[in-house]
Amino acid sequence: MHESSAPALHATAKPRTPRNWGRLVVIASPQVWLLAFLLAPFLILLKISVSESDILGIAFLPIVSWVNDNLLIRLHLSAYVALATDNLYVLTYLSSIWWAFLTTVLCLLIGYPFAYFLARARATLRPALLMLVMLPFWTSFLIRIYAWKNLLDINGLINQCLLWAGVIHTPLRMMFTDFSFMIGMVYGYIPFMILPLYATLVKLDSRLLEAAADLGATPARTFWLVTVPLSRAGVVAGSLLVFIPAVGEYVIPTLLAGPRTLNIGRVMWSEFFDNLDWQRASAVAIVMILLILAPIAWFNRAQTRAMESVR
């Protein structure tokens, strides 16, 4: 029995084929990418935020070291204590979350009707409409925001047109206000809301709408009770795609917002390059990342529940 079973056991041990190696490379590539460009920078920031700099403030002392055959761990949490005790940082985080939330709501209110119209348009017209949505991505983001400065300035195109039409008699001050800030934020992020909504609405089964109409539901009631619930995945995905980067946005607040607008992106820049306080700047970034992880975890949980309900 032992001699006869040995060849069978030996036969089951197959060497890795090129196809198996290719599958392994495909699976491992995203993991290596995330490790190199997501986890590694996060760990570097975390190390800097709890490290102590040398006398010149240039190099950072090691966190873990051996002293007299003893393991010594030095964790300096002064930067995090400063963030928790200084009202300026707390207000800046709350302000950044508020502006990101307002941007998300405005993008949803503007983007949902356009995505709905895009999904209900003729199949021959959809590529052109999608091109209009994605066309801004062909131009530099910085140039597009600078264009809004030329439009909203006191001597800009909008004021010139209003003066020429006689609507106003003195130029309006629109630049470096909350209005210009929101204009830039909504303009910059609304494509990230429209595209997930369109991808969800275009797959909506039209027979469900016909069934609701046959049961006597009005178009408004059908939209609210059928279309909106079925497009929830697109709403959540688009909201996260807008909210997460909007929290730490730096370019738009710097170019369009007023000096009193609190934004965490500008605070990080100031700590890194103006104050040269890398420990506190890294702590600001770490706390911002942790705040962003909360909606991501909520989204994953909502997606898991949706998949379980379908099953």
Summarize the structure.
This protein has 311 residues and is mostly helical.
Write the layout of secondary structure elements.
Blueprint: H1 2-12, H2 18-49, E1 64-67, E2 70-73, H3 78-85, H4 87-120, H5 126-134, H6 141-152, H7 157-165, H8 178-201, H9 206-214, H10 219-230, H11 232-247, H12 251-256, H13 264-274, H14 278-310
Antiparallel strand pairs: 1-2
Helix pairs in contact: 2-14, 3-14, 4-8, 4-11, 6-8, 8-11, 9-10, 11-14, 13-14
Kindly report the name of the CATH homologous superfamily of the largest domain: MetI-like
- What overall form do the CA principal axes indicate? globular
Give the strand line-up of the largest sheet. Answer: 1-2
Q: Any guess at the CATH architecture of the largest domain? A: Orthogonal Bundle
Query: Briefly, what CATH class of the largest domain?
Result: Mainly Alpha
Please name the CATH topology of the largest domain.
Answer: MetI-like fold
Weakly predicted, low-confidence segments: 1-6
The helix/strand class is: mainly alpha
The mean pLDDT is 85
Please give the alpha-carbon distance between the first and last residues.
47 Å
**What composes the largest sheet?**
2 strands, antiparallel
Number of extended strands? 2
How many domains comprise the coordinates? 2
Walk me through the structure.
With 311 residues, the protein is an all-alpha fold. It has two domains: 14-76, no CATH class; 77-310, MetI-like (MetI-like fold), CATH 1.10.3720.10. 73% of the residues lie in helices and 3% in strands. It contains 14 helices and two strands. The protein has helices at residues 2-12, 18-49, 78-85, 87-120, 126-134, 141-152, 157-165, 178-201, 206-214, 219-230, 232-247, 251-256, 264-274, 278-310; strands spanning 64-67, 70-73. Strands 1-2 form a two-stranded antiparallel sheet. A hairpin with a 2-residue loop joins β1 (64-67) and β2. α8 (178-201) packs antiparallel against α11 (232-247). Mean pLDDT is 85; it is low at 1-6.
